[in-house]
Design a protein that fits this description.
Strand content: under 5%
Shape: elongated
Largest sheet: none
Distance between the termini: 75 Å
Radius of gyration: 43 Å
Order of helices and strands: HHHHHHHHHH
Length: 297
C-alpha cells in the first residue's frame, strides 16, 4: 500500500513543479510579445514621420516653383509695359519733331517745289489754271534760292535734348530694382527697396504687389511673425487685389510655421472655401493635411 502511494505523490510533486515553472515562462513570452508590438508601433510612427517630412518638403518645393512662376509672369508683364511706354515716348517725340519742322518751314517753300508733309493743306490743295489763259512760268529771279548749309542750319532750330524720365517710368524702375533683388536672393536688400517703394509711391497700382513681395522677403528668411503682419496688412489695405488670394494663403503658412494650429487651420479652410478649384486652394489643402499629421487630428 505504501509502495503504491509513493509513485502517486511523486507525480503530484512533478506536476506542481511544472506548473510553477510554466508561470514565469508565460509571463516572459507575454513581455516579449508586448515589446515586439511596441517596436512595431515605433517603426510605424517613424515611417509616418518620414512621410510627413517628405510631404512638407514637396509642398515647399511646389511653393518655390509657384513663386518662381509668379515672378516670371510679373517680369514679362513689366517688360511689356516698358515696351509699350517706349513706343509711346518714341511716337510723341517723332510727332513733336515733325511739328517743329512744319512750323519753321519758309513760306515760299511750297511754291519753290519743296514737297509739303503728307496730310498738310498745301499738299492736298489742287493746282488749277483759269480757262483760256496760258500757263505762267515764273522768271528765274522769282524762284527761291536753295539755302546754303549754313543758312539751313540757322533756319532750323536745334533739336531739344532727350526728355527727362517720366514719373511712371521712374516708378516702374524702382519696383523692378526691388524685385530683381528678390530674384537674386538678396532678401534684406529686397525688403529695404520694397519698403522704400511703398513709402515713395503709396498710391501706385504696383503697391499691392510690392507689399506681397515684401512679406515674401520676410517669409523666405523665416521671419514669420513680421511676414504674417505684412500679409495681414496687405489684406486690410487691398482686399480686392489680385494678390489677396496668395496673401491669405501665406497668412495660413505663417501661422503654421508659428505652430498656431487653430488659426492656421481656420485660415487655410477659408482659402479653400473662398477660392475653390484654384492653385491656392490646392496648396491650402496640402498644408491642412500636414496640420492633421502634426496634431493627430
Amino acid at each position: 500500500m505504501r509502495n503504491r502511494a509513493f509513485p502517486c505523490g511523486i507525480g503530484l510533486l512533478a506536476a506542481a513543479l511544472v506548473a510553477a515553472v510554466g508561470v514565469p515562462v508565460a509571463h516572459a513570452q507575454e513581455r516579449a510579445s508586448l515589446a515586439d508590438r511596441v517596436a512595431a508601433l515605433e517603426q510605424q510612427q517613424a515611417r509616418a514621420n518620414e512621410g510627413t517630412l517628405s510631404l512638407v518638403n514637396r509642398l515647399q518645393n511646389l511653393e518655390q516653383q509657384v513663386r518662381d512662376l509668379q515672378g516670371q509672369i510679373e517680369q514679362l508683364q513689366h517688360q511689356q509695359q516698358e515696351s509699350d511706354q517706349r513706343q509711346k515716348d518714341q511716337y510723341v517725340d517723332l510727332d513733336s519733331r515733325l511739328g517743329r519742322l512744319e512750323g519753321t518751314r519758309p513760306a515760299g517753300a511750297a511754291s519753290a517745289g519743296i514737297a509739303a508733309p503728307a496730310g498738310s493743306m498745301s499738299a492736298m490743295a489742287p493746282t488749277s489754271t483759269p480757262a483760256g489763259s496760258a500757263t505762267v512760268v515764273p522768271p528765274p529771279a522769282a524762284v527761291a534760292p536753295v539755302p546754303t548749309p549754313a543758312l539751313a542750319a540757322a533756319a532750323v532750330p536745334a533739336v531739344a535734348p532727350a526728355v527727362a524720365v517720366s514719373p511712371a517710368a521712374a516708378e516702374q524702375t524702382a519696383y523692378d530694382h526691388a524685385f530683381q533683388a528678390l530674384r537674386d536672393g538678396d532678401y534684406a536688400e529686397s525688403a529695404r527697396r520694397f519698403r522704400a517703394f511703398m513709402a515713395q509711391y503709396p498710391g501706385s497700382t504696383l503697391a499691392p504687389n510690392a507689399d506681397y513681395w515684401l512679406g515674401e522677403s520676410y517669409y523666405v528668411t523665416q521671419n514669420f511673425q513680421v511676414s504674417l503682419q505684412t500679409f495681414q496688412g496687405l489684406l486690410a489695405r487691398y482686399p480686392g487685389s489680385p494678390k489677396a488670394p496668395d496673401a491669405l494663403l501665406k497668412v495660413g503658412y505663417c501661422q503654421y510655421e508659428l505652430k498656431q494650429w487653430a488659426a492656421a487651420r481656420a485660415t487655410l479652410e477659408a482659402v479653400v472655401a473662398k477660392y475653390p478649384n484654384t492653385t491656392v486652394a490646392h496648396l491650402a489643402e496640402g498644408r491642412l493635411r500636414a496640420i492633421r499629421l502634426q496634431t493627430g487630428g
